[in-house]
Design brief:
Elements lengths: L49 E3 L3 E4 L2 H12 L4 H15 L9 E8 L4 E7 L22 H5 L10 H12 L9 H9 L1 E2 L2 H9 L1 H4 L3 H7 L12 E2 L2 H13 L2 H4 L1 H13 L8 H5 L4 E3 L2 E5 L2 E5 L6 H12 L4 H4 L4 H21 L10 H4 L2 H12 L32 E6 L5 E7 L9 E2 L2 E2 L12 E2 L2 E2 L17 E5 L2 E6 L6 H14 L5 H5 L4 E3 L4 E3 L5 H10 L4 E3 L7 E5 L4 E5 L6 E4 L2
Parallel strand pairs: 19-20
Antiparallel strand pairs: 1-22, 2-10, 2-23, 3-4, 3-11, 4-7, 5-6, 8-9, 9-16, 10-11, 12-13, 14-15, 16-17, 17-21, 18-19, 21-22
Helix pairs in contact: 1-2, 2-4, 2-5, 5-9, 13-15, 13-17, 13-18, 15-17
The chain binds glycine.
Length: 590
């Protein structure tokens, strides 16, 4: 286990923000006591703060960051660079995202000073029943029984999102943007330690599909070794067709037929059809923005619960003085933990695809409602003994809480281009390696397991129950923070429902505690998603754990495997950082 070298000096003053100096102790990272499989951590690598004059990219893999940088340096827009990066990530980070999955894009268009979002979330096939993940006895399936195979596959949205984003904001020809990925797939890429480790850990599931087995294991069943050179000519051919013909090469014709065959012949079989693919639509939605102190935290509204939960937590926290308490104070973490618990209680009851179920977004973010929730945490000095969802709209009727287990996976791309356009996109195939079904060199998602497994409980409907054509609730939180009407921070992370806490902490670290992005992303995480207080076993957390237990929390030291990628827009330059917990890389692209 490499040492976690946290050497934090007094913070450099930030031009736009109130600076605050906090010293964090250096502590080796102990062996994690818990592994939130399957996309587990694969080591810690301290990363630098990267600066640029105008253009920057941060992705989860050096190949993808280089491809995006090349596009930006050729005069491409942030969207062009994203397309190149996403195509490369399909090849080099297949466990996390790809053209067989879905994504949310938050985009600041500089010329019109306009923020928008594109929803490329997977949809439930029209033939999928609401009890897809219930067994014959009426009980929810075990998670991996639900994930692995055709049953969990939703209609992929990423290719159409790339296309729609390019139609609106692309500058270079669509076809050019796939060249780096196609070249790499034909010539071969070096398998990263993270990919090799995750393949090895996932052998039992990945080897069930003959195409995945052939791709990820040799004839003796040995997993792809780190450092080996891997080609993927099938993916090169698929990307080549998409680059020439556009999205119809994916949503119709031979590739669509291959996806449907794979899903329907898998065991268990799923419900994806040619009509589901042909009918897939990306939805442009107004961004969801919530105030926090002098900032606006903007991102994806439903079907994501990400920005809604972030807005609620930060809205509650705006009633306490985090800046004065600082990152080493148990009070700060009590406020953050209990505000998160309150938001997760609401999320479990209300958050879903608002095209199918009323989601009271305005009421859940209303200042009076959040002031009432904030009173619960400010009036006490110990952990809230229990937490219940609020009733911001009593007429909404009773609902049952969601039941959808969520595991860390996914990837995040942050880009700013030379024109000042800013892009925050979180992209996923859900679980590590998705459904484990491989078609034409790419993996199909298992996004349908983001629906509640139980459609109802005790006769009450669950908002996030599966319905044909519906999009499963997400926690993905691609974020752009606005300050004085302009982007200040581009941020996001993978991590299932932990994404909300990861992004939250990175925002608090920067906005309240004055850290630069490198410092912010290297802090040990503390999360509360409604169960235990999860603490990364490092740095200040080692001392904080006893204090939090004293306050009444059920604390748990555990690996918290974020993949935060952030860019900060200063007056005259950009700074950026990639999470030390994964293989990401920030690159200046001037
Ligand atoms: N599948 C991860 C998410 O959407 O939250």
């Amino acid at each position: 286990m490499p040492l976690m070298l946290l050497t934090f000096l007094l913070l450099a003053p930030l031009t736009l923000l109130p600076a605050r100096a906090d010293t964090i102790t250096s502590t080796p990272m102990p062996t994690p006591v818990d592994t939130p499989a399957p996309e587990a951590g694969t080591g810690w690598r301290t990363k630098p703060l990267v600066t640029a004059d105008k253009a920057m990219v941060v992705t989860a893999n050096p190949y993808a960051s280089r491809a995006a940088r090349q596009v930006l340096q050729q005069g491409g827009s942030a969207v062009d660079a994203m397309i190149a990066a996403q195509a490369v990530l399909t090849l080099v980070e297949p466990q996390s995202s790809g053209i067989g999955g879905g994504a949310f894009l938050v985009y600041w268009q500089q010329q019109q000073a306009r923020l928008t979002t594109l929803d490329g979330r997977e949809t439930a096939p029209m033939a999928a029943p609401e009890d897809l993940f219930m067994d014959e006895g009426g009980q929810p399936l075990a998670f991996f029984d639900a994930v692995v195979g055709g049953r969990s596959v939703g209609t992929p949205g990423t290719v159409m999102l790339m296309w729609q984003a390019h139609q609106r904001y692309g500058t270079l020809p669509w076809r050019e943007l796939f060249k780096p990925a196609i070249t790499l797939a034909l010539n071969g890429f070096t398998v990263s330690p993270r990919l090799a480790r995750l393949v090895e850990k996932d052998q039992a599931y990945l080897a069930r599909d003959p195409d995945s087995r052939r791709y990820f294991f040799d004839e003796q069943g040995r997993p792809l070794p780190a450092g080996s050179t891997k080609t993927n000519p099938l993916l090169a051919a698929a990307l080549s067709r998409i680059s020439i013909e556009g999205p119809s090469a994916f949503y119709q014709g031979a590739l669509a037929a291959a996806m449907v065959d794979k899903v329907r012949q898998a065991s268990p079989a799923g419900h994806l059809s040619l009509t589901d693919l042909a009918d897939y639509r990306v939805k442009e939605r107004a961004p969801l923005c919530a105030p926090y102190r002098q900032y606006r935290i903007c991102g994806m509204g439903p079907p994501s619960s990400g920005t809604l939960a972030l807005g609620q937590i930060l809205g509650i926290l705006s009633h306490v003085d985090l800046a004065t308490a600082g990152p080493n104070s148990p009070d700060s973490w009590r406020w953050i933990a209990d505000a998160s618990r309150l938001a997760f209680a609401d999320r479990n009851l209300y958050a879903a695809d608002s095209d199918f179920v009323p989601v009271p977004v305005t009421e859940l973010l209303a200042p009076d409602y959040l002031a009432g929730r904030a009173k619960l945490i400010a009036d006490d000095s110990v952990a809230l003994p229990q937490v219940s969802p609020g009733t911001p709209v009593p007429s909404l009727g009773r609902r049952a809480p969601d039941h959808s287990p969520e595991f860390p996976s996914t990837t995040h791309i942050s880009i700013v281009d030379a024109e000042g356009n800013a892009l925050s996109m979180t992209s996923t195939i859900e679980n590590g390696f998705g459904s484990r079904l491989m078609v034409q060199g790419f993996l199909l998602n298992n996004e349908l397991t983001d629906f509640s497994f139980s459609p109802s409980r005790n006769g009450l409907p669950v908002a996030n129950r599966l319905e044909p054509g519906k999009r499963p609730r997400s926690s993905m939180s691609p974020t752009i923070v606005l300050y004085q009407g302009k982007p200040l921070l581009v941020m996001g992370s993978p991590g299932g429902s932990s994404i909300i806490g990861y992004v939250l902490h990175s925002l608090i670290n920067v906005l309240d505690w004055g850290m630069n992005l490198q410092e912010a992303l290297h802090q040990p995480h503390v999360l509360h998603r409604g169960g235990t207080l999860e603490m990364e076993p490092a740095g200040r957390n080692l001392a904080l754990q006893a204090a939090m237990a004293e306050l009444g929390y059920d604390t748990r030291l555990t690996e918290l495997n974020s993949g935060l990628h952030g860019i900060m827009l200063h007056e005259n330059h950009l700074s950026a950082a990639a999470d030390p917990r994964r293989e990401g890389m920030a690159l200046a692209a001037d």
